[in-house]
Amino acid sequence: MDPHTTSKKSRPCNDCHSNPKSMGLGYGNISFTNGIWGFSPATSKDPKIFGQNQRLDAFVDKNGRMLVHASRSELRPFKKSELDRIIQVGLCLPCHKGSEDPVMKNWVKGKSPVPCNCSTNAFKTSVKTQPSPTKAQCTGSR
Amino acid sequence: MIYTCFPCCTLTTAIAGTKPAQKARMVTRTLAGQIDMCLSCHPERPDRAHGRRVMGCFSCHLGNPLAGTPEEAHRGMVLNPGDLRVAQKTCGQEGCHVEQVKHVKNTLMATNRGIISTLQYYWGEIQDNNGTLTVDKLLENHHDKKGLAADYFRKLCGTCHLWLPRNTLPGFLSEKGGGCTACHYLPKKMESGRPKDKHPLITRQIPMKNCVRCHNRSGRIGLSYQGLYETEGYGVPFEDGEFSSLQLGDGRFVHKIHPDIHYEKGLVCIDCHNQKELMGDGKQRTHLYQQVEIRCETCHSGQDGLERLLQEQNSNKKYPLLNNLIRSEDKQILLKGKLDNKPHPLRPFSRDKCRNPQHSRLSCQACHSSWVPQCYGCHVRYDRGKTQLDKLSLKETFGRWQEYRSYMRYENPTLGMLQGNNEKPGEIVILVPG
Lengths: 142, 434
What we know:
The complex is a heterodimer of chains A (142) and B (434). Chain A is an alpha+beta fold and 142 residues long. Chain A has helices at residues 13-17, 20-23, 47-50, 80-92, 102-105, 135-138; strands spanning 28-33, 36-41, 75-76.
């Protein structure tokens, strides 16, 4: 649908690539551990609160399982593979801001660079991370 | 026009009881060639295109323009010529808007086919949401409920369609409906010191108010466009700790936030949405997305695209995509506002940002829609022991529906995928709960 709330300025990159709500996961935090991303929901799915065993703000879970049906059969939330690709970009955004950055400009679909240590700051998690490429290594790669 | 003295006639005023009976002083031959004696008593003055000396009264309101008594003259008269039940004899008569009246009966605003079939699909009454049940079919058969979905539609949704007779439902709902009049009606501003003339104006310059009268629920498009966010029922204290002061006619509280940029620039609904989208081309469609033709790219794809649109506008094409393009003195193509007559520049989108390969599947709305009302936990309660007004039959019938929601938010939209097919590639679009 078109919500008819058009603004001249578009949403910033991280509003889609680092925001679980925009991806359809609902309110919460994305973490990145050992090369795998995880999601901690901020809302409850307690049936005593909402009357159903599902969070109201989620269209899809982190495994790409569709949680709600749309009014059109051809409409769906993102699949797991799509979520992976969206989040992969988000991991690099804290340093490689905007479409003019060489990393973003030369991003090849399906061949995204391995995220570096600095990417964990994007999600403000305190989760330990495995050694991964440094910022210097990933900047401008490809 | 020929005015002939006609002193023997003893017509009385149409507003029986409000004025003393008077003799008809003249007969009018209208520009349409019709002898019309109604004008002898009726001082009302419609708009110029439907002027009293152009059309007379009979052409639109029927009745008998040659009768000698008011009772005879008013027999078979219709107050609202735009009502779809009579529109074929009035607005849609030969020489007037024949095609438009035929076509409009097939549009979604008249059929509500998408709403009904989606409800039936949700209730598991049909296999998909491409049903064929329409408002006029439901109107033909008041006693056959055709399931819970139809009952839900009759009780809660049945106020926003063109078949609804005007001034029949209570309260704010009375202004809805009316067929052609639902959109083309413009109340006349009363001027002091002039005879009281309540005859409305019929206009092609549809004010936004007429559209938003219906388009304010579900997606809340009419409200969002103006930057009106519907808050919770008690009026959330957004205003320095005070409860909301803005309230719609139906009692809902709204809070002013940033509107659509097109609204800020002065554009109204009909500046973008064309005749074919609104009044149809005769083909009956099921869903809104099948009827809407205008896209962001229509106006914002650059000079070449606009040149093609201007050529189309100036050609004999029956339904040009836009009909309000103008060329400025410096050869630029601009959009002329249909209400404000102001030229609006049509700036092209950025090829670098909007057409880079990584984002080729993004719809314009995915990035440029700044917020969308999001209604979580939308649910209804059905009480079969209580009654509720059936908005189609206008009778109280058993079965009462009540809507609830858990919470409402205005936030950046959630995105998802509209899967493509052989004809159209997939697109990343906005998903809205509710």
